[in-house]
């Protein structure tokens, strides 16, 4: 097993009196898809936002490529190579695919936008992800389907030599065929050696693409298990009760001591 | 390219997307055709009167000031904002510039030299910029809707202009300025039109080939997306309104040169004319799309209608009605297209 690219140790996060994350440990390995599952309010999105630098953590350590780092804002995260694909797509409808992929980080030549260069880079990135569903990289995003948009959002995230990609429910609003496309894409990201964190409510999706599954239960990391070592039922139990047989956090009475 | 296996269209295909297309966008073609048809129809009826050098010169010169205002308005409307204050800012800039030139020439600048004229230009541009900055800060920092902020500065700038000279026009515009810049021509083209054309060309380049332009579209299209990728939305909005104000200041100076007097009335509907021109030119009032070239067409359609109707002997009062019909039709078309797209 290669060295983890991102490692969280004992992350705590409170919003006022509400303790949302308790001593979260999580490692993300390059070339692996780590699914982050949990019930509503278990702290999945908060954890992702902490990694992305949107929320500061209260305590705990973040190691990136083995080095302790402090992520203070989205820019820091982006600089390290951590990209987030949000649930509600952050694409500008009136711009085309290239313009969206480079938005905020346009390449320029002599002060003017270098359209040719950006177009080629966008096409290369899409090709490297074997994206065949968009006809032209100059298509306006507004005329794309939900799956294609999600594809563009993911491709945008990998354009920046990113090393870790966090996906917040990328298939939530998609149909069967489109979900298929996006899951294939997620798999390919891992094959390219990126560390991928996938938040999902859909167990089928999780078992299909994830190498390991991290279950959050009421803000605690109930268990991190290999997806081949567990069944659907066990993961559901971990999500709903925090434990399943030997797996998961100790009995509630023991945990309170 | 090494990735021919993908079904993405080849680079050769896409590089044919010409610059012209990027400058124009889809609606622009149609509105350009409308303008062409108008010119052709009027020209067919009275070729002798329409294609006269003086008629065309006058048409262009009169439209130059509005064109400069409309270029700034294009940026504002693409961010899905609005600027009602441009006409008043123009008046303020024009009055303060004329008074400043008089003041440094000992009361009457009629015979002043280039130094004074340059100072007048500076005063006009800076006073326009200050109003624009004020608009921008109130909209982006205080989060007051653009309609309200600029409705406020619409009144305030007009009032301030009237206060400056007790409500009367300011005369004493340097002769030299009027002779060269206001009524002078270069190969038959009025100089004032050349200036407007340069401003327009720069505006078109700024919008279509720079980061500033790209961010303008992005902010108008999806503010949240722009913020997430790290674009300073507040800063950008401030700059866009600053640009509109600065151009209004420049337009005020051009008006001084052309009319030889800083007039305090007659600009009350400049804002609406500029908005109409921008929207006619295919820029969506909902933001995110539009082009400067479209705005050029949008500026000339009402102007050509007005001139043409007068020349062919129709009462000129028909002109606003004709413009209104074209305007409403243009917006209706835009909305229908949007609805068709969103229903997918």
Automatic annotation (TrEMBL), chain A:
* Pfam families (UniProt xref): ABC_tran
Q: Does the keyword Zinc-finger apply?
A: no
**In the UniProt record, does the keyword Mitochondrion occur?**
no
Molecular function (Gene Ontology), one example: ATP binding
Instruction: List each copy of the ABC transporter domain by range.
Output: 6-243
Family matches, as InterPro entries: AAA+_ATPase, ABC_carbohydrate_import_ATPase, ABC_transporter-like_ATP-bd, P-loop_NTPase
| The protein, known as | Sugar ABC transporter ATP-binding protein
Q: From what organism does this protein derive?
A: Lentzea aerocolonigenes (Lechevalieria aerocolonigenes)
Upper classification of the source organism reads: Bacteria, Bacillati, Actinomycetota, Actinomycetes, Pseudonocardiales
